[in-house]
Amino acid sequence: xxxxxxxxxxxxxxxxxxLAVHCCPxxxxxxxxxxxxxxxxxxxxxxxxxxxxxxxxxDAATGTSEPDGDGDWGVSAVFEEALAVPGVLETIPEINNxxxxxxxxxxxxxxxxxxxxxxxxxxxxxxxKDETTLGRWKTTKYTEEVEPVLGRGSSREQKIWERRILxxxxxxxxxxxxxxxxxxxxxxxxxxxxxxxxxxxxxRGENVVPCDEAEQKLGxxxxxxxxxxxxxxxKSLHTRSIDTADVEQAKRSTDGETLKAVLNLPLxxxxxxxxxxxxxxxTPCIVxxxxxxxxxxxxxxxxxxxxLSIVPGLSSEPERADAEGAFTTKSSNNAVTFQPMxxxxxxxxxxxxxxxxxxxxxxxxxRSTSTHEFVSRAGLYPIAACEALCLMRKSELxxxxxxxxxxxIDHLSAPLGNDATAAEYVLYxxxxxxxxxxxxxxxxxxxxxxxxVPVDNEPGNSGDGGMTVxxxxxxxxxxxxxxxxxxxxxxxxxxxxxxxxxxxYGTDRLRSxxxxxxxxxxLILDETRLSTGxxxxxxxxxxxxxxxxxxxxxxxxxxxxxQMKLPVDVPTIVVSTVPTKSVVAETDSKxxxxxxxxxxxxxxxxxxxxxxxxxxxxxxxxSNHTISRESSEYIERELVAAQQREGNDKAKEKDLHRxxxxxxxxxxxxxxxxxxxxxxxxxxxxxxxVSKRTCRACDDC
Length: 701
Known about the structure:
The chain is an alpha/beta fold and 701 residues long. It contains 26 helices and 22 strands. It is globular, with a radius of gyration of 28 Å. The protein starts with a helix and ends with a helix.
């Protein structure tokens, strides 16, 4: 067996021979065609031809001998070493930013996603002896290879291996600007499009409004002004082409359920906001993981590098099995009858929809991450230099903290009628995160209810598309946060469907719900349209789920025969017309709005300042806090004094915990990680102002 470096040299030689077959001299290439020969010189061979590299490493490790088992053969080390080279990772496109139709078969791509469901492990023919190559062993790892099963070039000598299967969806509520940020990086990928790609029909970059201005003026606002679309509109929504036969099969795949249910996206399918700036519609993938070190869990945010597979032949396999597959039974008179395997086929269709609707993604390397890390760095495996660069950028941002913080408050206060105090609390929520759980109590969480929103709460901007204050606030937050989920609370929305994920044992799938969100997502709950009426059984369950979600940062998954609680880290902002408290759940803080002007959509911010605001929010949320001994003693004395004034009941103890959390968030919002007395004083000042407003609101009631 060859050492890793020698195997890599063989892989490089193999790839150069393969590229030479379809390369032509630069002077004879078609106009506009990528210079493949030059690309092979500029990029590692594993990036240009990942499957060729895997095949070469496998061949170097096994040769004509029988493989010992499912091994790595140095694949992970080769790819990690290649991606650690500065500038290489940025050349690998993210599939939902260029569209799956723009990805050639066998191309190395990235997928930024959330784990929505976890299937049972899959057994597959991982290696086989190929009779057409004088008995050399070949591997089908990282592919949807079906030839060994169908018989061409196959033999009886096969190796059955196991791989882990995940159903991964694009990050729910991902902001448009974050996708645009990745699209800018993808623009340097020279071989990303193919001749039949939709990108050839709709060029990216022609008649496009500049990024930041377009996303603020139209994109982020439209993102929250949309509703779920019908099945008939979904086909036209996707910018990638979908065969009619695949759509029909998808309709049959789960006994007549809609295409929306087949895709199983937590927040459903929104309108063509993603096509603004000609971004393709997002698509989920069935991800196949290799190796035993995968410790991913439900709702984890993960960035994958691997190979995308769209194999039309797989779509016909279930149909063929449905027609031919049957088992025999004997009745009491020994008569033999044939019964189709309907139960199995129904489950198989639901879990394996056509690859043109839900492609297969074979992960070579991966990293569990968070939505905020995508803002500051793109590296899947950042080297020390990248880490140092991030720290340097963070220091630069915190050095300009006063200007950036003021811009954030102005941006968030516009939809709130220039209420700077309410904007402070919204900023606290954006920066909050659960940093520890003590006796199942989440420490560090922060949620806020904005009370007393006018009933006639349309922002005073004729160009806002008629958005409510809650939608305008969600759009403003989406300008600076990487993921935002807007949910409108009405009797219809609460009674119509279950908001928590539920296991469907008929299809063996986890049916998603609006509360299945990635950690770090900001949730906006709009109570302004909630009217008097009766909640059904589903509605009552949803309200209870919301209470537990906000107060305990947990979601109870419904597995029918048992319930399972999973922790979340999703700051929540509730917008309500009620002057005193939220109708649905108790939040950490309640702030009656005090508007000095009519609410309006946040104005457009200069691109450079907007970038700093986004990076500041991400850096502050990911930062840890410290407290000096002097500051600790001061705050401790203040806490004791406040406790003596207010008494020792539990409600007041809860207030003290909230003040400590707010002190930490105040320090982070000012670009500081050390808590001190000034931060504590500012918190008490804000609390006194809110207390006066609450008293006035109670008197008015």
